[in-house]
Amino acid sequence: MTDLSPDPRILLIEDDPGTHILIKSRVIRLGMKFTGAMSGQDALQIIQEADEPFDLILLDYILQDTNAEEFITDHWDEIGRPPFMVLTGYGDERLAVKLMKLGAEDYIVKDADFLDHLQSAIERTMRHVSERHLLGKTERQLKESEERLHLAVQSAGLSIWDINIREMNAIVCERWRKLMGNTLPPNPVPLDTLHEAIHEEDAEAFHKRWETFLEHFDKGQHFGAEFRVNTPDAEVRWVEAQWIQADSEDATRAICTLHDVTARKKFDEVEQQLRRAQRVDMLGTLAGGIAHDFNNVLASIVGYNELTQRNPGDKDYVLKNAQYISEAAKRAREIIDQILLFSRREAPEIRSVNLVSIVEEAIRFIRAVVPPDVQLVHQFEIQEAMIEANSGQISQVLVNLLTNAIHAMNGREGSIYVTISEVEISHSPGEALNHIVRQGYRVDVRDEGPGVPEHLLETIFEPFFSTKKAGEGTGLGLATSKGIINSHGGRIQVQSELDVGACFSIILPRGTPPEQEEQSLPAVDFEPSSLRILLVDDEVALAEVTTQLLMLHGYEVDAYHDPVQALRNCEVNREEYDIAICDFSMPRLNGLELFAELHKLMPNLPGVLITGNMNDSYETTVLENDRLTLLRKPYSHDDLITAMVQILPAEVAAQKSVGAD
Fold first, then answer.
1. What's the CA gap between 71 and 564, in Å, rounded?
2. What's the pLDDT score for residue 207?
3. Which pLDDT score is estimated for 651?
4. Structural domains of the chain in order of their starting residue, each with its CATH number
5. CA 349, CA 300: separation in Å to the nearest integer?
6. The pLDDT value given to residue 597
7. pLDDT at 560
8. Do the Cβ atoms of 282 and 403 come closer than 8 Å?
9. Peptide linkage before 190 cis (omega within 30 of 0)
10. pLDDT < 50 stretches in the chain
11. CB neighbours (10 Å) of residue 458?
């Protein structure tokens, strides 16, 4: 049934001409449009040919070809189920009840005053019909709105919990029930039952977030969390949840939307695996160069050490050789740091870095594998180019581009040019920029190789695409590089001309220069000290040299090579120390585990944890512990003492005379 027209349309089905005329005049007087039919058959034809449906039908009970009961029973659905009233000369209540059950709006007896009754009945019926239409329209709009919301929720892949805060239960949608294998009880479902599905490793963090939401519930704040859920089919799914108060005036309801982000997590994981695979591939390519550099360092250390042993009596000569050895050791540390940088798995740390320094480091790293007949030339228009980036990832991109350029020069004499310049960045069609910026920097890596064929320019950034022979590369380098640069808000592009060469460019937005450069810690001026130190390192030579360095300052050092023995001695003899220095990687008990046991005996014991390479989760634990500090190998004498001064409580340092004012 459509909405009522402004001028209601009335159809009268009456076979008595006199009554027909009387009713027609009264309907027209009411301002309604009148149409008349003298039989049921005429009425059907009129209804079928009408441009619009009738708003009300006045139906005489007895007609020449039918009666009201038969007409409604046989044709009401066919004519669209319009509202109807029955007119009759019979005042039979049973008949009236029967017709009302068939759907009649009213039942009018044709007595002397029936026209007045009919007018009142028509007006009343039209009001009721109008109200029903309005209610039906509202219900249809509500249903359509619910359907649109349902479609939007379905399209977005969302699940819904309608939470009753007072009762601590929720009305759960069908999508979530399907995710849970249809194992949930009927609605409303207790929240404890819903929360049982949360992965045990995420449960504590989830409940903390949920409690925070409840504490701030009356403020209408929006809260979110990301966690895993266990499904009945033993599959773990990642879910992103958002909570918000359902109504600012209702302090009992909250809406929780849950988005299954497992696919995104898997994609992120695959992307990280691609990047790690590309790093491994790159390290394999650079292995010869790394070995070359490291052997040079070792050769200089061995050489200067032999020279010192041959002439130990010349103090100045010995000190000069020791300085050379120290510088060689620092270079070895730089090489190791760069290797570790490529092997790290943690989420990249974005900070303000100098792009020029990163490019210079990449060139130093790659230079050892440049063939003799190839010149590596760098020309920088600027000496400082601050960007917001992860230096390790940008270095990875640059080393990959340089490695590709070297490969392109295979068998050719020529040069590889590396340039840095300032540029204005515009958002051109087809260029993938995360955001629009005006100022930035461009690094060009240009070779004089054979170039890239035009038909391959569109595919070289796709994963596993490679122009190298089998076994010479994974095809991950450029795809990974593009992903890294895009994630930094920049873009990577290529220009090439056959038999002339190719130029790969990375363009990155300018960052905000740091307000103050980090100042290196001043050298510590040491004084004799009565500090008592526990030193634990399973490397005998390292423990010995560290002990001697510490004893130079009057420190009392108890050194152990076995962490279990050190712990047992502390337990049995009730030893008390001012500070502990422990290596991380030790058999039976690593350094972090040893500190955990020592803190049971000496809760306030500060410590220095020494590592050459540590698992990311362990490193996070150390950094979050205010009683521990981290010192990386190889470390100098000054590095060790500075770390001790930083972690020691001020009153202990002052009492024991550790360092000078």
1. 100
2. 84
3. 63
4. 9-138 (3.40.50.2300), 156-260 (3.30.450.20), 268-509 (3.30.565.10), 532-655 (3.40.50.2300)
5. 35
6. 92
7. 94
8. yes
9. no
10. 1-4, 152, 156, 345-346, 428-437, 464-465, 469-476, 516-526, 528, 660-661
11. 8
Helical pair 391-408 and 355-367, crossing angle rounded to 10 deg:
40
What tokens appear for 59 in the block?
């139906």
SS3 27: helix
Q: Residue 654: what pLDDT?
A: 60
First-to-last CA distance in the chain?
Answer: 93
Cβ-contact 22, 48 below 8 angstroms: no
Instruction: Round to whole Å and give the CA distance between 37 and 346.
Output: 85
Residue with tokens 């519930």: 217
| Residue length of the chain | 661
Q: Which residues, 6 or more positions from 147, have their beta carbon under 8 angstroms from its beta carbon?
A: none
pLDDT at 656: 59
The answer to whether the beta carbons of residues 512 and 386 sit under 8 Å apart is yes
Per DSSP, what are the bridge partners of residue 84?
Answer: 57
Count the neighbouring beta carbons within 10 Å of the beta carbon of residue 480.
26
**Euclidean distance between CA atoms 151 and 9, whole angstroms:** 38
Q: Which long-range contacts (CB under 8 A, 24 or more apart) does 227-236 make?
A: 227/198, 227/199, 227/202, 228/198, 228/199, 228/201, 228/202, 229/179, 229/197, 229/198, 229/199, 230/197, 230/198, 230/199, 231/179, 231/180, 231/181, 231/197, 232/180, 232/181, 232/183, 233/181, 236/199
Tell me the one-letter amino acid at 201. E
Q: What is the pLDDT of residue 480?
A: 73
